[in-house]
Every structure is written in C-alpha cells, then in structure tokens.
Amino acid sequence: MTSSSAASYPFVYLASQSPRRQELLQQLGVRFELLLPRPDEDAEALEAELPGERAHHYVMRVCVAKAQAARARLVAGGHAGAPILVADTTVTIDDAILGKPAGADDAVAMLTRLAGRDHEVLTAVAVVTADGTLLPAVLSTSRVRFAAVGADALRRYAATGEPLGKAGAYGVQGRAAEFIEHIEGSYSGIMGLPLFETAALLRAARIDF
User: Fold this and answer.
1) CB 3.0-4.6 Å disulfide test: which of 15, 27, 67, 101 passes with 169?
2) What confidence category does residue 42 fall into, taking pLDDT thresholds of 50, 70 and 90?
3) Catalytic residue among 40, 42, 88, 131
4) Spelled out in words, what is the top-level CATH class assigned to the domain 12-204?
5) For position 5, what pLDDT does the model report?
C-alpha cells in the first residue's frame, strides 16, 4: 500500500490514441501525456481473441496486457516516472465480441446485428503506479438498446466513416446517438473511459486533479 506521505504526481501517462479518452480525462481535470506504441510494437496482436474467450475475460486480459506493454515502453524509453492509465472497450451481443470493423461493409454488418436489440459495452481500466505496480483492473458494464434501424440508415451512417476504429462500429457521442433508445450504466464507460472508476484508480495512484 502507498503511505499517506508518498509523493503525488501532476500528470498521468495515457496509453491510448482515443480522442474520446483524452476528452474524458480533460473533463476530470486530469493532466496527461500520451505514451503510444512504438512503430516496432505489434499493438494489434494484443487485441487478438483467444478461442472460446468470453467478452468480459477478453477485455480485462487485453487491458492488463496493454498496461504491461505500456510500462515496458516507459522504462525502455527513459521517460519520467509517473503512473500509466490504460483502457480497453468491447461490445458484446449473443456472447460474441464485436471489435473494430474492418471497413464500411463490416460496420454495416455489425450495426445490423445490433439494430432493434440490447447489447453490452464493456470497458476495462487499469493503472500502473509510478513504481511499476499494476493496480487491480476494474470493469464497467453498460447495456445499450438500439432502435430497429433500417438498412439504408445504417449504410448512410457507415459511409460517414464514424464507425471505423470504434468497437461495435459506433460512437455513442456521435451520430449513432439517433439510433440509441436506452442506456443503462455508464455513459462515459460506453465512450471508452468510465469516469467514476477511473477517478478512483487515479487517486489510488496519487494523481493530483
């Protein structure tokens, strides 16, 4: 455990390229610096599914793996010591994991699967302290209900390019909001960084904000 007299830190490293996560940290008033994968790192390999893996196990495993990779990156790069924040988000329906679509057609296929039904959005968050300790990762689970959207509307949405790079092929904060009938859980978690859980982890890592 960290003693009450231990040093605090004015910023956290964010090991994510997501503009949404950056916006959410700014909403909390947290200063951050990006700690992104090097060109020689195979970041996509960390997100590969294991055979028969359940969605909640998958998202937690990937988040922890990303945290370990980010810590190694920090040490190898000689960066200043500070905690690291990592998150991973996935969408699941019918026990299937819906990751990032490969293109517009894949996005339409995912959105068609979601239309008129409930699905879950899982976001895992992990923090590595400045001394390299991985705090217990946390999982935010939210339920989202899509309206019975027609194929033409889904194709128009996919053509905007917004679904690309997003788990489940949509962003709750973007144009897809017109398809969403109901949300149960954490809106910020659906965006990619549940702020309640994240704030608790950052305080445990002694981030000043």
Assistant:
1) 101
2) confident
3) 88
4) alpha beta
5) 53
